[in-house]
Design a protein that fits this description.
- The chain has three domains: 81 residues, NAD(P)-binding Rossmann-like Domain (Rossmann fold), CATH 3.40.50; 211 residues, Mur-like, catalytic domain (UDP-N-acetylmuramoyl-L-alanine:D-glutamate ligase), CATH 3.40.1190; 142 residues, Mur ligase, C-terminal domain (Protein-Tyrosine Phosphatase, Chain A, Alpha-Beta Complex), CATH 3.90.190.20.
- By secondary structure, the protein is an alpha/beta fold.
- The chain contains 15 helices and 22 strands.
- The longest helix is centred in the C-terminal third of the chain and has 22 residues.
- A seven-stranded mixed sheet has the order 7-6-8-5-11-12-13, sandwiched between helices.
- A hairpin with a 2-residue loop joins strand 9 and strand 10.
- Helix 5 crosses helix 8, helix 6 crosses helix 7 and helix 14 crosses helix 15.
Length: 452
């Protein structure tokens, strides 16, 4: 919604926005664009008299314990019959219509892959528009209209709005669609994996015959999606696919149908980013970008804020910020860092630094406890793990009991910071993982570490 607001502002509209607990980097970006941010959902905002209210899926119908509405502004809009629409619908009608849309879907890697693809098209001189659920460091903004024919968008399977329960991505009608991976998530709206597969198939149904569906060859779930029907060219990537990688995760050859077509050397870590790169190259080739040029672009790719972003170092300890919140994403993030640290240690003839994983189960799925049994597996590659359990309806200590002394649980941010600092040693790497602001834990850790 923040990126959408930025697009509306760039198009010349006056834009205001309201939310609860706004935090960087999006809050900083919006204020820099002259977009007024209002804390809360009070009816006093009716005085702004906008032409339309664009409603995000955080808004729903319901009352507090005292009988007052949780979203009084929305109730007033409904009562007074004022014009409103969903974010994806507004975007489809006002930005995407008539453009070649490249949509990136998947449980993991959407933001990074979307950023890669947008940067490849930018490097190729196509001047694309884009909307990303983060801030790509190559651009410094999460969204722009672009002057070219192409628009790259992060395509989320989450529901559109309280009045439109379809997945967001069915509004986008892409000509090029990336299906990066597909696991069970969003337990608050989907009953099982089959329900999500059905939504992905709805996306596939919107791709024209002249379009391309780029899918992960290793995912059985995506093969089931395509087996329901696909009326476009389908191109696979990953082991056993049409597009494959040969070499280390940070320096590899790209093969298309077994023939080398590109070389990628970059600073990113992990097999997941190598797979993201293959998907982006296959999608870019569909709009005429030569793989060799795409590989050169990825060599200049600077990643996305909050994706293994180094927030600072103090006392010999490096603190990272990462958006991982699903168990698979947590494990993948830690695996990428572990491989990098092991390789560096082997070259230097030293022992690899420790990894301290600091996380909060903040997503709706994690809050429900649906995946709590996977947490010990997801944290297996960390030397120590620290969980912020505030606000959970399930027992984090019980869920992490199998990790024994390797795991600690804190009920508030202050206790969490104390635990991490007490356990830290010079040479450690502290990875803070959350899909929210995490109570400013990164700055608090660095401050305490600097103080010794």
């Amino acid at each position: 919604m923040g990126g959408l607001a930025a697009l509306a502002r760039e198009a010349g509209h006056r834009v205001t926005g309201c939310d609860a607990g706004v935090y960087p980097p999006m809050s900083d970006q919006l204020r820099s664009l002259g977009i007024e941010l209002i804390e809360g959902y009070g009816v006093e905002q009716l005085a702004l008299k906008p032409d339309i209210y664009v409603v995000g899926n955080v808004v729903y119908r319901g009352q507090r314990d005292d009988g007052t509405p949780k979203f009084p502004l929305m109730e007033a809009v409904l009562d007074q019959g004022l014009p409103y629409t969903s974010g994806p619908q507004w975007l489809a009608e006002n930005v995407l219509q008539g453009r070649h849309v490249l949509a990136v879907a998947g449980t993991h890697g959407k933001t990074t892959s979307t950023s890669m693809l947008a940067w490849i098209l930018e490097h190729a001189g196509l001047n694309p528009g884009f909307l990303v659920g983060g801030v790509p460091m190559n651009f410094g903004v999460s969204a722009r209209l672009g002057a070219g024919q192409h628009f790259v968008i992060e395509a989320d399977e989450y529901d559109t709005a309280f009045f439109d329960k379809r997945s967001k991505f069915v509004h986008y009608r892409p000509r090029t669609a990336i299906l990066n991976n597909l696991e069970f998530d969003h337990a608050d709206i989907f009953d099982d994996l089959a329900a999500i597969e059905r939504q992905f198939h709805h996306l596939v149904r919107t791709v024209p015959a002249s379009g391309r569906v780029v899918y992960n060859a290793t995912e059985a779930s995506l093969k089931r999606v395509l087996a329901k029907g696909c009326w476009s060219e389908s191109v696979s990537f990953g082991p056993g696919g049409d597009w494959q990688a040969l070499g280390a995760n940070d320096d590899f050859q790209v093969l298309r149908h077994g023939l080398p077509v590109a070389h990628v050397a970059w600073s990113l870590t992990g097999l997941h980013n190598q797979m993201n790169a293959l998907a982006a190259l296959a999608a870019a080739q569909h709009v005429g970008v030569a793989p060799e040029l795409s590989g050169q672009a990825l060599g200049l790719f600077q990643n996305v804020k909050r994706r293994m972003e180094v927030r600072g170092s103090a006392g010999g300890v490096t603190v990272y910020d990462d958006f991982a919140h699903h168990p698979t994403a947590i494990r993948t993030t830690l695996d990428g860092l572990r491989r990098k640290l092991d390789a560096q240690a082997a070259l230097a003839g030293q022992q690899a630094g420790r990894i301290l994983a600091v996380f909060e189960p903040r997503s709706n799925t994690m809050k429900l406890g649906t995946m709590k049994a996977q947490l010990p597996w997801s944290l297996e590659l960390a030397d120590l793990a620290f969980c912020h359990a505030g606000g959970l309806g399930w027992d984090a200590r019980e869920a992490l009991a199998a990790m024994r002394a390797k795991a600690q649980v804190a009920d508030d941010i202050e206790q969490l910071v104390q635990q991490v600092v007490a356990a830290s040693q010079p040479g450690d790497h502290v990875v803070c993982m959350s899909n929210g602001g995490f109570g400013g834990v990164h700055a608090k850790l660095l401050e305490r570490l600097r103080a010794g």
